[in-house]
Amino acid sequence: MVINENFILETINMVKLNKLDIRTVTLAISLRDCMHPDVDVVCEKIYKKITKYAKNLVEFAEEIENDYSIPIINKRISVTPISIVGEACESPDYVKIAKTLDQAAKDVGVNFIGGFSALVEKGMTKGDALLMESIPEALAQTERLCSSVNLATSKAGINMDAVLKMAEVIKKSAELTKDRDSIGAAKLVCFCNSASDNPFMAGAYCGFGEPECALNVGVSGPGVVRAAIEKLPKGADLSVVANTIKEIAFKITSTGELIGRKLADRLNVPFGVVDLSLAPTPEAGDSVAGIFQAMGLEFAGAHGTTVALAMLNDAVKKGGIMASSHVGGLSGAFIPVSEDAGMIDSVNVGCLNIDKLEAMTCVCSVGIDMVAVAGDTPVSTIAGIIADEMAIGMINKKTTAVRLIPAIGKKVGDKIFFGGLLGEAPVMAVNKFSSETFVNRGGRIPAPIHSLNN
Question: What percent of the chain is predicted at pLDDT more than 90?
Answer without folding.
Answer: 71
